[in-house]
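User: I'm putting together a teaching handout on how multi-component assemblies are represented. Below are the sequence lines for each component of a complex, exactly as they appear in our records. Could you produce the 3D structure of the whole assembly as structure tokens, so the students can see both representations side by side? Please keep the chain order the same as the input.
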Amino acid sequence: MSALGIVGGVVQPVVVVAVSPVLVGLMRQVRAKLEGRAGAGIGQPWRDLRKLVRKEPIAPRGTSEVFRFAPLVLVATTLVVAVVAPFATTDSAVPAGADLFAVVALLALGTVALALAGLDTGTAFGGMGASREMTIIALVEPTLLVAIFALSVRVGSTGLGAIVTSTLHDPARVISPVSLLAAVALVVVIVAETGRLPVDNPSTHLELTMVHEAMILEYAGPDLALVELASAMRLSVFLGLLANLFLPWGIATTAAPLAILVGLLAWVVKVALLGAVLAAGEVFLAKLRLFRVPELLAGSFLLALLAVAASFFLA
Amino acid sequence: MNLAATSFGIAMAAGALSIVAALTIPARARSALVGSGVAITGLAGVAAGAAAMTGQAFSLALTGVLPLSGVSFSLDALGGLFVAVTGGVAVATGIYGISYAREGSRSTQAALPVFVTAMLLVPVASTVGTFGLAWELMALASLLLVLTEHRHRPEVAGAGRWYAVLTHAGFITVLIGLLLLAGHATGDSFPELREAAGHLSPAVAGIVFVTTLAGFASKAGIVPLHAWLPRAHPEAPSHVSALMSAAMVNLGVYGIVRIGFDLLGGGPRWWWLLVLALGAVSAVYGILQAAMGTDLKRLLGYSTTENMGLVLIGVGAAGLFAASGDRGLAALALAAALLHVVGHATFKTLLFLAAGSVLHATGTRDLDALGGLRSPMPVTTAAFGWGALAASALPPGTAFVSEWLLLQALIHGLPASGVATAIAMPVAVAAVALTAGLAVATFVKAFGVGFLARPRSSAAGNAHESPATMLAGMAVAGAAAAVLAVAPSVVLPGVAAASNAALGAAGPAVTGVVTLRLAGIAGSLSPLMLTLALLAAVLATAGAVRLLSTRRARRAARLWDCGAGPLSARMEYTATSFAEPLQRVFDDVVQPETDVDVTHHRESDYLVAAVEYRRRVPDRIERRLYQPVLTALSAWGQAGRRLATGSVHRYLGYGFYAVCGVLLLVAVTR
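Assistant: Of course. Below is the structure of the complete assembly, with chains in the same order as your input.
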């Protein structure tokens, strides 16, 4: 546990919590501008959260502890990922947790908690959302793991720090076929996992199209605030991982204050840029039919497998 | 007499006493005595296995017990691991059985300790004769136990037939393989076989390996020899299902490791590619069937096929690395496989015992009729929830650690070169990854639909918590799963000793107490730190919410019902509807059968009175592979019937012609 790691472990979660809602606001604003609307401003998600947290907590009849604890687990898993993963600093506060499998499994644990909460309500909406979310995650997990496999084979480690550092030392790797194929596969699964278009529409409440929104339909007040905050945090965590796995430049490798400041800035700028690009792309996309989504995910699984094949035959 | 020998002796004595008690004691005290006897047998087995893994060994030859060969036993670290696992499962199931098996008859009560004792003897047997004896005793005792409830349900008899045929076919192939090997050796003891294997021709060694592999794979429930498993496991009483699913199937893995690595000393690559391919197919096929399943215990049975598939992926990878000369990596892969065996034993025991508790309370295993069990059965719900988390490779679960190790071995195996390895490793990783994803969906379904929400039938609505001993049995299994999830380093030295005994490698592949570190390659993981970090994050979040939000009590509110009046249980998602999207995705693989029956009103065909929808996901491999064999057999039987008409003249004629034929044959060939 180095000084750099500790600084990262303290700063990263704070920044993730503080900036994630702003990222969501930014993405909404980009969409609004491109669609010719004025938009609510990038601070709106924070204002929504403040409003929700002050409301009265509600316990829908017939729900159990699973329903009450799910938002906590969802936020906690994302927080742990924010602590261990290399976003602003290459070292981790918990080096033995900064493993790609552990990070993927932690994020999946959050999704599972939410799906169980959806089932726990016993409504058709909750069950429907949970069923769809589990179908998607059953296909997303393999793609994530295989893409990780492609990235870790040449480094000889699944440690996030090791992968980021090795890309820093050998920039030519970024444009290798392995990296490009894995990057495309990861972009698709991140879009699916964070519930963006064309897999799920975050701004709809239409029963035929809902996935994420259907699961959380029964949440209100502070619980809903946690769920909303967590989905914003997951978005920024996934985008941060994507950015640093393929474009790690700027990340702090020493504990000097300037280096850490540059690392933080680079991280925030990269994630903001990725978010803006994603939002701009969404303007031109319609939501896919639910049963076309597996085809998209199967395609990304194939790309990830190709990346693995390439990592062996082009090595 | 060292600890291993003493404990093993105690285990055998306790087992024998339990059998006697089951046969002699009156019904009132029988189940308590047999249950505690089995638990003591198990506890002594754990002690013996643990002692064997720390380096104590014993061997014992009793020449007078059986004519011709006698019996002989020897316990080493590899056998010790399996003895300990079997013992651990026996402890939990023995305690559980005290109240669960109260109504059992004399013979089924006696079969349980016979079964446990036989399973403890299999890894200790050190001659072909002894091994066969223990193996057959185990098969027969388990068959009796599977048939326990045959008076209540007609399906039990069918399950028993499938099990009897497949387990004995498997036993015959194992025996053929071992006898072929023994034919080339000076005797039938394992050291003599080991010595003979050194100068065996590759073809003979290959035949020995493949025939024994077929038999052991059928015991481990590996596709395509798995057909008995999803039948027999659900129909057996639940504590027997736990013993079969968590302890008996492991012995198939034991057989493969013992014959392949220890006796035959490794072997060419194609052996292990075969094992790896079987494992990958089983893992994916098993979990796919489980993901579609709606029968709680059948689902768990398919999940056993999946987990044994994962173990075989590890065993196959270990063989592949050993054949390429990379001993360190082979030790890592085998350690991952063996750790998964141990982990699977804990969580599968827990899951089957919890399923038995549900069956005890509601009388049904159908997930579509369950639900709403959390308030009447809080302990069982918590136990199943913990088991489901442990089984689905998510932190902080048991399977997460072993699957992480397995994936580490596979990832570092790719640069080990060789085209076969280069193709096998990505395919294996893809299989493990697909399995992990589907396992999450499966267990969310089993737990979320089966235990949460509202009861879907009156049976589930009237459920009640099980008696204390059943809960205690589950608690034992759950605590073991928790220890493995948070501090796997407790068992890792034992696992390393077992894998070293098989591979002959030196030094443990995984070291570290809090943080697991891999020997020779980069990679570290700390399940304990991850769990603590998660706990801290949950507490921090809860604290922050308390601080920021208004401190009002939660107000109970109506669920959103679209304003259409109270929701009924029929509006809930069921297991069938939960799995429907997945079933659509894998439509081409599982080929489900759906039936829609529409009944119209008598007055008008335009008015629909009722619509009935039925979906069945038949086991496709079983239909394609076994159905033709069964059809051919029955056709053969029909043909044979025409020969046997009952006429004595005809039979005399057959005899006459047969004798003439033999005489002719002798005359021609001499």
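A couple of points students might notice: Chain A touches chain B through 86 residues (CB under 8 Å). The mean pLDDT of chain A is 87.
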